[in-house]
Recover the amino acids of this structure.
């Protein structure tokens, strides 16, 4: 990491990053696998320049909720020119479903930016991520009763999809199912965060 790099920005190669954040809980290797796939798909464009990651995954939290990612692409990059699998990376709903990631896109970040200027640039995307999902997180479920309600909601949503698959065309089903699957994913993560909350508290000696 450069000496003049502020605490908010750390530069690391892939091996260092994976070694630091990819282990010490069952969820982290799974999310790391999602991150690898996402970056590999974005790289198929030949226009991926840099990747920035922030949020709970780059903390000591055992069960991060998701990935927050900024992809820097070359000037003139167009999503429509990508193959369908790679386009999913840049579709907010599909990226949440397939990679449990909030993906943001920027083009040609000036490499001459100072470290502090870079941190300010990234903070804009961090604030956008918080605003997009401000109603989702560990604070949503506070009691066991609320957790049971959330579990019932997930169960109800899961029952909808098999019935919908029977009566809708594949295309219509896909369009209808995506927001439902996203809701299931978000509520299941809220449940996971509630159940793991005590594990994140320091143990008194």
């Amino acid at each position: 990491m450069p000496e003049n790099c502020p605490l908010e920005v750390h530069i690391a190669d892939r091996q260092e990053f994976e070694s630091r954040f990819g282990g010490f809980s069952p969820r982290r290797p799974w999310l790391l696998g999602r991150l690898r796939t996402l970056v590999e798909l974005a790289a198929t464009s030949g226009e991926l320049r840099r990747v920035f990651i922030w949020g709970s995954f780059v903390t000591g939290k055992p069960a991060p909720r998701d990935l927050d990612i900024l992809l820097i692409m070359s000037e003139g990059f167009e999503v429509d020119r990508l193959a369908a699998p790679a386009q999913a990376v840049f579709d907010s709903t599909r990226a949440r479903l397939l990679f449990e990631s909030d993906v943001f896109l920027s083009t040609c970040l000036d490499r001459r930016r100072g470290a502090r200027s870079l941190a300010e640039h990234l903070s804009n995307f961090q604030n956008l991520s918080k605003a997009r999902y401000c109603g989702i997180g560990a604070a949503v479920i506070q009691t066991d009763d609320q957790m049971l309600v959330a579990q019932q909601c997930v169960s109800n949503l899961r029952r909808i999809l098999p019935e919908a698959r029977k009566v809708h065309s594949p295309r219509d089903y896909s369009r209808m199912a995506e927001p439902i699957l996203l809701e299931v994913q978000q509520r299941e993560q809220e449940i996971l965060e509630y159940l793991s909350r005590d594990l994140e508290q320091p143990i008194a000696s």
Observations:
- Helices lie at 14-21, 27-43, 84-87, 92-99, 115-132, 144-167, 170-196.
- Confidence is low (pLDDT under 50) at residues 1-7, 131-139.
- Strands lie at 48-54, 67-73, 101-107.
